[in-house]
C-alpha cells in the first residue's frame, strides 16, 4: 500500500510539473485504494466453490437388505422415471430396476413408484428384512406416518405401507430427515 501511495503521489507531482492539474488529496487516496484493490485481486486465487459433500452408502445390518430408490420428474411434460437398487451387507447389487413414467402428477409420485417397484422385487425374492432408502423426505414421512394419506396421490402411500406390513418381517424407511441420506 505504501508503494502504491508513493507511486500515485509521484505520478500526481509529475503531472503537475508538466503543467497538468494538481490532484487533490482525495483523488490521490481514491486512486491508491483502487490500485491496491486491483493488486489484491491478482494475488488471491478466485474462490472456487467446494463440491457438495456426498454421503456414502451405508451397509445394512446383518440379514437385512437395503433398497435405494430415486425418482425423476419433468414438470414441462408431466413425465419422469424411477429406479431402485437392492444390495446386501457386502454392497453387492442383487436386483435393480428402472422405468419411464408417461404421466406423473409430481416428483413425490415418481419416488413412490420407485419405492413400490423396489419393495415388490424384494418381496418376490423373499427378503425378510429391508431398509427402504429415499432422498425424498416427504416420501419417508408419507410412508412411515401416513401424513399424506388424504392427498390426491395418497393411495399409493397406503399401498406401500400395507405391502411392507404384509410382506416383511421387519422394515425401515429412511430419508434425509427421518434418518440418513443415501
UniProtKB/TrEMBL annotation:
What is the protein's given name? RNase H type-1 domain-containing protein
Chain segments annotated as transmembrane: none
Q: Which domain of life is it from?
A: Eukaryota
Among Gene3D superfamilies, the record links this protein to:
Ribonuclease H-like superfamily/Ribonuclease H (3.30.420.10)
GO molecular function annotation: nucleic acid binding; RNA-DNA hybrid ribonuclease activity
Coiled-coil stretches, from where to where? none
In Pfam terms, one family for this protein is: RVT_3
List, for all copies, the residue spans of the domain called RNase H type-1: 68-173
Amino acid at each position: 500500500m505504501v508503494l502504491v501511495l508513493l507511486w500515485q503521489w509521484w505520478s500526481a507531482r509529475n503531472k503537475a510539473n508538466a503543467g497538468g492539474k494538481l490532484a487533490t488529496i482525495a483523488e490521490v487516496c481514491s486512486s491508491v485504494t483502487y490500485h491496491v484493490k486491483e493488486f489484491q485481486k491478482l494475488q488471491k486465487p478466485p474462490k472456487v466453490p467446494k463440491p457438495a459433500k456426498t454421503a456414502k452408502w451405508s451397509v445394512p445390518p446383518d440379514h437385512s437388505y437395503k433398497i435405494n430408490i430415486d425418482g425423476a420428474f419433468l414438470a414441462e411434460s408431466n413425465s419422469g422415471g424411477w429406479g431402485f437398487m437392492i444390495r446386501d451387507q457386502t454392497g453387492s447389487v442383487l436386483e435393480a430396476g428402472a422405468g419411464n413414467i408417461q404421466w406423473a402428477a409430481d416428483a413425490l409420485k415418481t419416488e413412490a413408484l420407485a419405492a413400490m417397484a423396489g419393495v415388490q422385487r424384494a418381496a418376490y425374492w423373499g427378503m425378510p428384512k429391508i431398509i427402504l432408502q429415499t432422498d425424498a423426505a416427504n416420501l419417508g414421512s408419507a410412508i412411515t406416518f401416513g401424513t399424506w394419506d388424504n392427498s390426491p396421490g395418497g393411495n399409493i402411500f397406503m399401498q406401500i405401507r400395507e405391502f411392507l406390513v404384509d410382506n416383511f418381517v421387519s422394515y425401515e424407511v429412511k430419508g434425509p430427515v427421518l434418518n440418513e441420506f443415501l
